[in-house]
Every structure is written in C-alpha cells, then in structure tokens.
Specification:
- InterPro entries: Integrase_cat-core, RNaseH-like_sf, RNaseH_sf, Transposase_IS3/IS150/IS904.
- It comes from Cryobacterium frigoriphilum.
- This is Integrase catalytic domain-containing protein.
- Pfam families: rve.
- With 144 residues, the chain is an alpha+beta fold.
- The protein is built from five helices and five strands; from the N terminus they run E-E-E-H-E-H-E-H-H-H.
- A three-stranded antiparallel β-sheet has the order 1-2-3. Strands 4-5 form a two-stranded parallel ribbon.
- It is globular and about 40 Å long.
C-alpha cells in the first residue's frame, strides 16, 4: 500500500502484482487505509485471474492491514498460501516498492491531484497500466 497526497488530503493505493508476469492484476484506491482496501484489490485480482487459489501465494510486508485477522481469514477462505517478509527488511517486498517508486516518479509527481476524484479511477488506472508496461531499464515516456 502506498500513500498519495491530493489537495483534499491523502488517498491510499493497494496493488496486487503477479510475481511471474510482474503485472498489476488488482488494485484499489480509497480515502482510507482500512483492510477493505486490500481485500478489494485481491478480489479484483481473483476476478481477473480466475479461481486458482491453490496456486496463489499472497506475499506482503508486515503492515497492520496485511497482518490483520480479516486478511488472514480472507486468504484461508480463498485457499491462498500466505507469505510475509521479515520485519524491517524492505527487500522482501522489493517488487511492490519498485512499482510504487516508478508509479510516483514517472506519473504521480508530474501531475496535480486536487481531489480523490481526480486521482481515480481513470487517471490512476491509466498510470498503473502505463507503469505496468514499463521495465526497470526503460523510463515511462508516454501515458495513453
């Protein structure tokens, strides 16, 4: 989960990244950072990928929302295997951290975000898809 500042206050973005394809397959944005935000991103990913819970390993950091009973129950209910990085070791979640850094550097910091409505859903969806297409060796130069 990452924080995005608008003139009206903070908004929060949760993503689900497929580690094999390195593509964002689920995301949710809201003006709160409750666990429901992560559940919404997971539901989007499950809808996109279909029901393959036995093949899913859900890796996250040890943030409060990710370590919550609600997320644990959701993972168990949907047959997901849980994996959590070590406390204080950012490299354990490097794929997500790298994605958020690219998203912010190449798209978010280059625009003005007056309100949550301006940050979602179309503008941020475009940014996620454009950043998702990029690679670590090529800077994002065009957003559709």
């Amino acid at each position: 989960m990452t924080y995005l500042r608008t003139w009206a206050g903070w908004v929060y973005l949760a993503t689900v990244i497929d580690a094999h394809s390195r593509r964002v397959i689920g995301w949710a944005i809201a003006d709160h950072m409750r666990t429901d935000l992560i559940v919404n991103a997971l539901v989007m990913a499950m809808t996109l990928r279909g029901d393959r819970p036995a093949q899913v390993i859900f890796h996250s950091d040890r943030g409060t929302q990710y370590a919550s009973a609600q997320i644990t129950a959701f993972a168990i209910k949907n047959g997901m295997t849980r994996s959590m990085g070590l406390t204080g070791i950012c490299w354990d979640n490097a794929m997500a951290e790298s994605f958020f850094a690219t998203l912010k550097t190449e798209f978010y910091y280059r625009r003005v975000w007056p309100t949550l409505d301006r940050a979602t859903p179309r503008c941020l969806r475009t940014a996620i898809l454009a950043t998702d297409r990029g690679s670590s060796t090529r800077r994002l130069t065009r957003v559709h």
